[in-house]
Amino acid sequence: MIPNQWYVILESREIKKNQLKGFTRFGEKIIAWRDNNGTLGVFRDRCPHRGIQLSKGKIKDNRLQCPFHGFEYDTSGQCTLIPANGKASQPPAYIRANAYPVREAHGFVYVWYTPDPAAAKIPSNESLPEVPWFDDLDDSLVASSFTDLWKAHYSRAIENQLDVVHVPFIHHTTIGRGIGPVVNGPYTKVSNNSISFWPLNEEDRGQKPLRPDQIEEAPKKSTYITFIFPNLWQNHIMDSMRIIVAFVPIDDNHTLFYLRTFQKMVKLPLLRDLYFLVTKLFNIIVLGQDRRVVETHQPQATSLKMDEHLIAGDHPIILYRKMRENLKDGKKMQDK
Ligand code: FES
Ligand SMILES: [Fe+2]
Asked: What is the mean pLDDT of the chain?
């Protein structure tokens, strides 16, 4: 995991008012719950009193109540009542559930991931940067979403979506039909926290592929892919049609895809539902084609130096590995 980043972990609609849900993210047991004002709390799923899972508790009087000795917590994680000490006693400030900084935006729940379990060392929510999102995705696009669970490390799941070399092979019956195997470039653009690239595959007519520095027109093409660290991806198929994926790390061997299809061409409600149903079925088939091979990767997690022989067409994957390493070390990439 890259520490000190905003990760998408859920969709907001998954946690309703007065509801709690336990789940696993980053290999850790986590609880998310909403009070009746709609405020969301996301904690490591462990009561600071004696360490049992808070997700076995309940919401009582707008507080999360631990089932074991009834300690109560607000959405910031602060303990507000220790029943054994009586209502007249104020719980000490240091009795806090281990809360993640949390934000809700674009229909997603983001948490600020830091491996340091000491809540006191986690920065205040206000001092943190904006959550990552796509500048070129406006609100006029309508979305439909579904999830897909892969038995794969998140780095493999992400790299698969940065792989322009595989498309004519794995997807020869779907999105790869008619796509040539020769990979020009790909032309890439990098910012501090994102990679964009333009797939420019073509048929093999005996030509050598173009190097990235021989390509100038790529950014004028409407189809491009953007990955924003740590876990968001967009296929900008055209202005009126996009696919985004949030790759949510469950543990070292599982990644949950939150896939959304955006479009603004089909406006009639019934036709729109039909459009989303057909694209969902199509995307399930395409993801299944990927998953079948990605789940067989050895080793599961990728790293900068590993026993693979990457080629020029794998450039976005190489960039991803380098940037991930730099971000882990707290360095930034130069704009290019
Ligand atoms: S373990 Fe939660 S209140 Fe004691
Ligand atoms: Fe694919």
From this structure: 93
